[in-house]
Structures are given as C-alpha cells and as structure tokens.
Task: inverse folding
C-alpha cells in the first residue's frame, strides 16, 4: 500500500473514531466511546506509517540522485 493510501485510511479511521466517541459520549455509551478511541489511535498509527513510507521514499530518491 502506498504512503498516500495509508494516510487516507488513517484520516478516515480517525474521523470515524472521533464520531463514535462523540456519539458514545452523547448517549452515555462507554463501550462506543472506547471503540472510537481505539479506532482513532489506529488511524493515527496508519498516518504515521504513511509518513514513514514517504520519508523512506524521499531518502531513497535523494540518495539515488547523488549516485
């Protein structure tokens, strides 16, 4: 999966997680709040993975350009 795809999936998971947390808080559903927090954290991880892939790609391109 590309770095962009990881970032997009991460953003989607973060948004869905935040929505679940909000609904859980509004309805007093602690389980939904917990699920939302877990999904938000998953999304943050996916975005970090995308950032790492992009950094590795950029570094490889820089090195390749100097050879």
Result:
């Amino acid at each position: 999966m590309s770095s962009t795809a990881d970032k997009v999936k991460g953003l989607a998971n973060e948004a869905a997680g935040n929505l679940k947390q909000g609904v859980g808080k509004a309805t007093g559903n602690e389980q939904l709040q917990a699920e939302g927090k877990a999904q938000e954290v998953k999304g943050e991880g996916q975005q970090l993975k995308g950032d790492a892939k992009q950094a590795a790609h950029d570094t490889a391109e820089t090195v390749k350009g100097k050879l």
